[in-house]
Amino acid sequence: MKTDIILCGVGGQGILSIATIIGEAAMKENLYIKQAEVHGMSQRGGDVQSNLRIASNPIASDLIPKGQADVIISMEPMEALRYLPFLGKDGWVITSSTPFVNIPNYPDVEKIKEDLKKLGNVILIDIEQLAKDNGVPRSANVILLGAAQKALGIDYEKIEDAIRRVFARKGEAIVEANIKALAIGKEAQR
Predict the structure, then answer these.
(1) Which residues are CB-contacts of 127 (< 8 A; sequence separation ≥ 6)?
(2) CB atoms near residue 44 (< 10 Å)
(3) What does the angle CA 144 – CA 159 – CA 167 come to, to the nearest 5 degrees?
(4) Which residue, among 114, 93, 99, has the nearest Cα to 7 in the 3D structure?
(5) What is the per-residue pLDDT for 190?
(6) Mean pLDDT of 142-165
(7) Range with the poorest average pLDDT among 9-23, 54-68, 113-127, 161-175
(8) Which residue from 115, 153, 145, 189 is spatially nearest to 9, judged by alpha carbons?
(9) Are residues 78 and 106 in contact, defined by beta-carbon separation less than 8 angstroms?
């Protein structure tokens, strides 16, 4: 088993929380894991990207070479496009369809969506609206994780258990909101 994942978005969207949950689930499956993070501008609104490599055998490098990523999980559609050169031939892109417009010359959103839809394996999902509609507005990132679960190759129950461990210190209400968000994402990607 080997899965190379690029997680991307902008600061404050919960990319690093997704990486933590996936990493926790992988470790409980006794898999090897390497992670490298890039925090753009170290603030909300800056580019955030994480390379997450999971395998059943030892991993030499924490960086994913161009053309080798199995999955790109993006909280922002333009950021998904930015990392397409890293996507492998049969790779998956799972991205929010809602832009985070933080620059004055943000590209046309419909053009971005058209470019993404040209890919063979893409899931575009309005996680922000799903989060609001289902009463979990702070868990949009976990909805995206639920939509990406199949592409990750990690059992759903393992990710659910990882959410319980990662968010346990924040209280049962936060844990349950994130478990609900995971289920919403899993259902939405069907």
Answers:
(1) 75, 96, 97, 98, 140, 141, 143, 144, 147, 185
(2) 11
(3) 85
(4) 93
(5) 66
(6) 95
(7) 9-23
(8) 145
(9) yes
Q: What is the pLDDT of residue 38?
A: 67
Strands lying side by side in the sheet with 69-74: 32-39, 47-55, 2-10, 69-74, 87-96, 122-125
| pLDDT surpassing 50 at residue 18 | yes
* CA 73 to chain CA mean position, Å: 4
Q: Is the pLDDT of residue 43 over 70?
A: no
**The pair of three-digit structure tokens given for residue 24, joined into one six-digit string:** 């926790």
- Which residue do the tokens 């210190």 mark? 169
Tokens of 31: 């898999």
Tokens linked to 13: 């969207």
Q: Is 3 helix (H, G, I), strand (E, B) or coil?
A: strand
DSSP class of residue 73 equals: E
As a whole number of angstroms, the distance between CA 99 and CA 167 comes to 27
Q: Give the SS3 label for residue 59.
A: coil
42: left (phi over 0), alpha (psi -120 to 50) or beta: left
